[in-house]
Amino acid sequence: MTKQLSPASDSVICHSFVLRASSFAGIPGVVPRDRAGQRCLPSVERLDWRVVRLVLFDIDGTLIYTGGAGVKAFGCAFAAEFNIPNGTERLKFSGRTDTGLAREFFLQNRLEPSPENFRRFFDSYVFWLDHLLTQTRGGVFPGVWQFIHELHALPGPPAIGLLTGNIRLGAEIKLRHFELWEVFQTGAFADDHEDRNQIAALARQRGSRLLDSPLRGEEILVIGDTPRDIECARAIDAKILAVATGGARFDELKAHHPDWLVEDFTKVKAKEVCSEG
Ligand SMILES: [Mg+2]
Prior knowledge:
Elements: E1 3-4, H1 11-21, E2 54-57, E3 64-65, H2 69-82, H3 98-108, H4 115-132, E4 139-140, H5 144-153, E5 159-163, H6 168-177, E6 186-188, H7 196-211, E7 220-224, H8 227-235, E8 239-243, H9 250-254, E9 260-262, H10 270-274
Parallel strand pairs: 1-9, 2-5, 2-7, 5-6, 7-8, 8-9
Antiparallel strand pairs: 3-4
The structure holds magnesium ion.
Magnesium ion binds near residues 58, 60, 61 and 224.
């Protein structure tokens, strides 16, 4: 049953998290350490009081909005490399993988989806993406940084990774632009696989390698903004927190029965979605 979270009532605990997180607030990518200076990565021994060991974030519509830079970069690359204007008109981007979108474009326009055409397209795409991000008004969604700080401040914080339909370099360009890239310790991308469910399986594998022990599905929390994020979380038996900030409306997400559903990150505390059995 989907839980719709309201603003947390446990303001005392919440406040202490904010204070504990303040040592790295505003400094992206700093890994929390204990008093002896050791990295506070999750450990198997601590599982008795912490359930989620890996949190996997979608990017577009979940962490950030690019003001249309991503879609425009697709269009510019289609036009520049293949001389096809308005190439994005018949594509639906939300929740899709970059490689799947490029393949659909090739097929719609009777171009061969060859490795060479994929390479030509993505070489151009990342150039345009990097350029257009400086021209459009994007940002990080409200509450994202606070939520990340709360994850770091949990006792035995989970590893933080990406599960995205972006190609890796595209993800890096977008997240570096918003100073978020260094937050993430692992991830799986559209150039790993075209199918989002397979990307999820890879993210789980890499998370297990990072933590040096196999992850059970219930030890993974996926966070995303579309029914496809919910679907790929289910594909690896992970929990799913849906945020209605991007590609799907609140009611649409609710119909897909995520474990948690919120309007945005200001409506959820990390411990609410990482500490339950
Ligand atoms: Mg998304």
